[in-house]
Design a protein that fits this description.
The complex is a heterodimer of chains A (396) and B (343). With 396 residues, chain A is mainly alpha-helical. Helices cover 65% and strands 6% of the residues of chain A. Chain A folds into 2 domains: 235 residues, no CATH class; 122 residues, abc type-2 transporter like fold (3-Layer(aba) Sandwich). Chain B folds into 2 domains: 180 residues, 3-Layer(aba) Sandwich (Rossmann fold), CATH 3.40.50; 67 residues, 2-Layer Sandwich (Alpha-Beta Plaits), CATH 3.30.70. In chain B, strands 6-7-8-3-9-10 form a 6-stranded mixed β-sheet, sandwiched between helices. Chain B starts with 35 loop residues before the first strand and ends in a 6-residue tail after the last helix. The chains are: A mainly alpha (396), B alpha/beta (343). Bound molecules: adenosine-5'-triphosphate and magnesium ion (MG). The site of adenosine-5'-triphosphate has 13 residues of chain B, from strand 2 and helix 1. Chain A: One of its GO terms (molecular function) is ABC-type transporter activity. Chain A: Keywords: Cell membrane, Membrane, Transmembrane, Transmembrane helix, Transport.
């Protein structure tokens, strides 16, 4: 068994390394993309992302007051500065051109990226328990899209929380069980993380996002050869040979894993050397990388197990790889609340990036244990059906 | 047309299989023991019974041909014999070991040459050979030595380092066969190895199969070319719709349709007067009319041809083209299945 696994592994490795796509897709593309994104969105290997946001309470209700305090409290967290404006002094009510003008000039004068406006009637919307959903307005500086995105995601998260408790209260009212409306549940969780926060700088974060996205492509080359062996007819020979069928699967898994890990390590070392990325304690980083590559192999194996042809598999694998990457925050931060937040946390990308985020600047690699555990859990949950499916593909 | 090849050193006995061996023949396994025994193989794909009770046995040094049209079930049958495919029921024994898809036992005894090319295009001929040699558990040294031998045999020694994607179709075919021979199997299974090969390469392939079988290897050869089956095979199983409808030496099979030649003469005008006279010619077994033609079955068609034509002309008919067919496997196939081997 071991000899057969080794033989097939060596053969496959030779084929893959001969095939330029490993270098192109596995290493060159993600690196180049990360550099481009970094140039577009921030200084190369540059400073931490700073966000300056303002908050205005135009409503002056009890609920808006609590929200206002909540937002103010983020000040100083993860590179965010919050400037507060008193809703009575100077800023007109929501929607009026006066108010708009004031906010805009405040953005210019104070060098703000965006201002969160709690509009008039916000508190009433919340307590009504039905009808119109409460909304926050974000007035933005169009020249600072990344920073604005962060402010918007803060606002989104807040509204989602409030909306959740509002609907719960509304439902309670209808059932006649509770007449006490709203916000008592909404102990606003204002702790959020985003790129350039306490952890990774923008450049490293971009690179990490690309690394974890492209490792899916890299490992897919290894797994998909199981299908191409059927197409080249060589599967018949493998099946006819005096080797255990599991040896074929094992070899394909190992090749994918090694290629994935290799590409990841090369990219992260390149990031450290060329982009001054500081990934944090190497033991933790290694554990995170090894676990993330494992989930990538498992997920791509499931696709290969379902697909009919190698070409079909590659297509679906590309969709899955890009889709999961977007959902998991490889491209841009994803809200951590709501359905999207839950879905996001089901992706390996999320755990990998969060893990790296907490590793950067950490004293010990052990901070990453929950992330590694989550990744391993995903790998096991996906890997078992993947193995079953792929075993069934071992036919002539 | 008998199918015996003298170099093979054995003749077919009355039971169609076992025979005495001439001195000097390499005896690979115990005398009287077939090397391959497939018993009552069945395989169904959804609604299609691809293989329907196929049994066959092959002796060492014997070449067994599975002759049948496209979709007859040849590849499916040999996939079960080679242990690739699990039969719905039935057993396969090769060199005394039962072959099962989930077990590795007995696999060394079998060499498989798949119908479709089964080589890695991005590896060289040498790398392909070394890889499969290693899968069959050969040491690096043995593998290298055997790869050298095989490369000589298949005539690719001077292009061994080239990627096979750059080979011509015939070269790929030869490598495909070479990989099957690599580990010196006792049973070589060739699935239509000459499809898409020019006549010259095809002859070379047939010659090497003859040589291998002469060396004591059992060969299972599938084809839908009856000439190949007639030339190579000691025994032939005719397979159609998953069933072996007849089995035996070429002679035995042909004797099933009778030893008679078939003479077909196109005529215009009346043959009614002539046909009675033709039937009276001694040696003519049967005479009948087809549309615009008369068909005569006779023990020696050419010898009786002048007499037949005389009777036709005397009867007032005009004679067109004439065709004399000696009985062959094609005729056997037609006789047994009512359809032609190749459309
Ligand atoms: N994996 C499969 N799934 C479904 N049907 C199959 C499968 N393999 C073969 N068949 C069907 O079984 C029948 C026998 O196929 P098989 O390949 O054994 O024929 P063959 O005699 O080798 O034909 P050919 O001379 O064209 O190679 C065909 O009708 C084929 O379509
Ligand atoms: Mg076939």
């Amino acid at each position: 068994m071991i000899a057969a696994v080794r033989t097939i592994t060596v053969k496959d490795m030779r084929q893959r390394l001969r095939d330029k796509s490993f270098f192109l897709v596995g290493i060159v593309t993600p690196f180049v993309l990360a550099i481009i994104f970094d140039l577009v969105f921030g200084g190369l290997g540059g400073d931490e992302l700073e966000v300056r946001a303002g908050v205005v309470d135009a409503d002056q209700s009890e609920i808006s007051g609590r929200l206002y305090e909540g937002v103010s409290a983020i000040d100083g967290e993860g590179g965010v500065t919050i400037v507060t404006f008193d809703g009575d002094s100077g800023t007109g009510p929501d929607g009026t051109s006066d108010g708009e003008l004031d906010v805009r000039s405040a953005i210019d004068e104070q060098g703000l990226d965006a201002v969160i406006v709690i509009p008039e009637g916000f508190g009433a919307d919340v307590t009504s328990g039905g009808g119109q959903a409460p909304r926050l307005r974000v007035v933005a500086d169009p020249d600072r899209p990344i920073q604005v995105g962060i402010v918007e995601s803060i606002a989104d998260g807040l509204v989602t929380d409030i909306e959740r408790s509002r609907l719960a209260a509304g439902a309670g009212q209808q059932l006649g069980t509770s007449t006490e409306p709203a916000l008592q549940e909404a102990d606003l969780d204002l702790h959020r993380e985003w790129p350039g926060g306490e952890g990774l700088d923008t450049g490293s974060r971009m690179l990490a996002g690309m690394v974890v996205m492209f490792v899916f492509f890299t490992v897919s080359f290894g797994v998909t050869t199981l299908l191409s062996e059927k197409e080249t007819g060589t599967m018949r020979r493998l099946l006819a040979a005096p080797i255990r069928r599991d040896a074929i699967l094992a070899a394909k898994g190992i090749v994918s894993y090694v290629l994935g890990a290799l590409a990841t390590v090369i990219l992260m070392v390149a990031g450290a050397v060329l982009m001054d990325a500081d990934w944090g304690p190497w033991l933790g980083v290694s554990a995170l990388v090894l676990a993330a590559v494992l989930t990538a192999v498992a997920l791509m194996a499931v696709v290969a197990g379902i697909a009919k042809t190698a070409e079909g598999a590659s297509g679906v694998q590309a969709i899955v790889a890009v889709g999961l990457a977007m959902l998991g925050g490889s491209w841009f931060p994803v809200a951590s609340e709501g359905i999207l937040g839950v879905l996001s946390q089901l992706t390996p990308h999320y755990w990998f990036l969060e893990g790296l985020d907490s590793l950067a600047g950490a004293d010990s690699g052990s901070v990453v244990l929950p992330h590694v555990a989550a990744l391993v859990a995903i790998a096991v949950v996906v890997g078992v059906p993947a193995t079953v499916l792929l075993r069934r593909r071992l036919t002539p | 047309m008998p199918c015996s090849v003298p170099s093979r050193g054995r003749t077919s006995g009355s039971d169609g299989r076992m025979a005495e061996r001439f001195p000097g023949t390499i005896i690979v396994s115990a005398v009287n023991d077939p090397l391959v025994e497939a018993a009552h193989l069945y395989k169904r794909f959804d609604k299609l019974q691809a293989v329907d009770d196929v049994s066959l046995s092959i002796d060492p040094g014997e070449t067994y041909g599975l002759l049948g049209p496209n979709g007859a079930g040849k590849t499916t049958a040999i996939s079960m014999i080679a242990g690739l495919l699990e039969p719905d029921s039935g057993t396969v024994t090769v060199a005394g070991t039962q072959i099962k898809p989930r077990s590795t036992q007995g696999r060394e005894a079998i060499g498989l040459v798949p119908q479709d090319l089964a080589i890695y295009p991005d590896l060289s001929a040498e790398e392909n050979l070394m890889f499969f040699a290693s899968l069959y558990g050969m040491s690096k040294r043995d593998a290298r030595a055997r790869a050298d031998e095989v490369l000589e045999v298949i005539g690719l020694a001077d292009r061994r380092k080239e990627r096979t994607s750059k080979y011509s179709g015939g070269m790929k075919r030869r490598l495909n066969i070479g990989i099957g021979l690599l580990h010196s199997p006792r049973l070589l299974i060739l699935d239509e190895p000459t499809v898409g090969v020019d006549p010259q390469s095809r002859n070379a392939i047939l010659e090497s199969v003859e040589a291998l079988s002469g060396g004591g290897m059992a060969v299972l050869y599938t084809t839908h070319y009856m000439e190949e089956a007639e030339r190579l095979c000691d025994r032939i199983g005719i397979i159609d719709s998953g069933r072996v409808v007849a089995e035996g030496t070429t002679e035995q099979l042909i004797s099933r349709v009778g030893e008679n030649d078939r003479v077909r003469i196109e005529v215009t005008g009346s043959v009614d007067a002539a046909i009675g006279h033709i039937r009276d010619i001694s040696g003519v077994v049967e005479a009948s009319t087809e549309d615009h033609a008369i068909v005569v079955m006779a023990d020696d068609g050419s010898r009786h041809l002048p007499a037949v034509i005389n009777h036709l002309v005397d009867g007032g008919a005009q004679v067109g083209s004439i065709e004399v067919t000696r009985p062959d496997l094609e005729a056997v196939f037609l006789h047994l299945t009512g359809k032609a081997l190749r459309e």
